[in-house]
Amino acid sequence: MAWLTALSILAVCHTGLAAYTKFPEGFTFGVATASHQIEGAWNVSGKSENVWDRLTHTRPEMIADGTNGDVACDSYHRYLEDVEELTYLGVDFYRFSLSWSRILPTGFSDHVNPDGIRYYNALLDALAEKNIEPLVTLFHWDLPQSLQDLGGWTNSKMVDYFRDYSDVCYREFGDKIKSWITINEPYEVCEDAYGDIKKAPALDSHGIGNYLCSDNLLKAHAESYHLYNEKYRPTQNGTVMISINSIWYEPSDPENAEQVALAETANQFKFGWFAHPIFTNEGGYPEVMIENVAKQSAAEGFSKPRLEQFDDYWIQRIKGTSDFLGINHYATHLITGPGVDPIAKSPSWLKDTGSITSLEVGGDSASEWLRVVPTGFANLLRWCKSSYNDPPIYITENGFSDRGTLQDYGRIQYYNDYLSAILDVIYDDGVRVLGYTAWTLMDNFEWRAGFTEPFGFYHVDITDPDLPRTPKLSADYYRQLVANRELPQDERFKDPANKYKEEL
Ligand code: PNW
């Protein structure tokens, strides 16, 4: 079968023999977390309920191990320990996110919670003392429940609410934070949380809510960007970007024009949905999305397409509103054919793609969706260079899940191979990747997977009330990488017996 051939092509490239090892001058390294995944303290010091609190408390059966973020890594109280870990790793920057419901308990800017402001100032001061730059995400999925009760991202007023929240954050923290991310992974927000039940609030409004969300989310992002540009950038001098996730789709047979076209369509629906409006010259949603949704909507008996192009005002207003392209990337999937996906609901995003079927191929991790294909990452980066006018790129997430071993060779190999793919495209293709962020500092609340798919450099023992953090072997790998700005060649990071696979 054609996809078997493609799989072996992908596998051949996964040799671990790096052509380049040294990172260019000025390249920066960081590590990431997100508020709801690490902070805990879910209802103390004025924080109100967010959509993940609501989901985990009312429907615990939806979380793999029935856990929640009530305590998580308790970083709200243990942030100084976290800063120690960051210092050990030697990273240039720390990417973390602000909890909206901790800063604005009503969801609105009528009441700013002083304890929320104090907490983030204390963290920022501790980072400054260690010379670690903050890279801060305004929204990493933990929407205040009060706003969800009004429809969340399906409500067009969210554009105003997000701008108001941004305004408070830029005003309160902008003297200390020079690098901002507005929104983390809009695809996961709109498709997984509104079009499906994979993320909170698990609305499952497939084919409808997902597109209401993208209209509002892109406008909200743009307004936050313009607000910073006009009101804060002149004095604060920082930058603002958005982080877009990609599962990268490869054609099963690169010589087959139909397969290539299907992969392009899939990539436009996944990454282009949010990147095209911001990073292309023409702006707006990708043409293929507008066409497919219109066709599909008509066939389904809708009076209007469920997704329509932005009007000229919004096309212009959204275009160009990101100083860098922030890419979160973990996995590549292989297109298996034009065949109709039997699980596609109607209406739905998947059906709108043309029900393109794909297969999760490549090396294993603990997460079903995370298949290891480093060459896919290189192809994604080349595609971003050619599709989006050679943008300056930050990798804002990349990482690997296993079952929690301290001898985490699988993670080390993943990082080594994916970083090697980055070096290839920097030196061979001139892709402008400026920095890299590993996901994640420590094992944490992995959303619906609970604590069953850890991604951390540090193990966190959640059965011990002190939540001790223990560095894994990968922590030493990353520390050495950052110190030398070079892929470590050290024998102790190699797992000749491929032992890690037994643990997955
Ligand atoms: C990201 N996919 O989520 C999030 O930003 C993190 O909060 C999360 O912990 C991390 O990646 C690991 O899952 C993703 O299906 C969810 O490609 C899904 C995908 C990728 C990233």
TrEMBL record:
The active site is at 397 (nucleophile). It is an enzyme of class 3 (hydrolase). Residues 1-18 form the signal peptide. Keywords: Glycoprotein, Glycosidase, Hydrolase, Signal. GO terms for biological process: carbohydrate metabolic process. PROSITE patterns: GLYCOSYL_HYDROL_F1_1, GLYCOSYL_HYDROL_F1_2. Its EC number is 3.2.1.21. One of its GO terms (molecular function) is beta-glucosidase activity. It comes from the Eukaryota. It holds the Pfam family Glyco_hydro_1. Belongs to the glycosyl hydrolase 1 family. PANTHER family: GLYCOSYL HYDROLASE, LP05116P. Homodimer. This is beta-glucosidase. It comes from Bombyx mandarina (Wild silk moth).
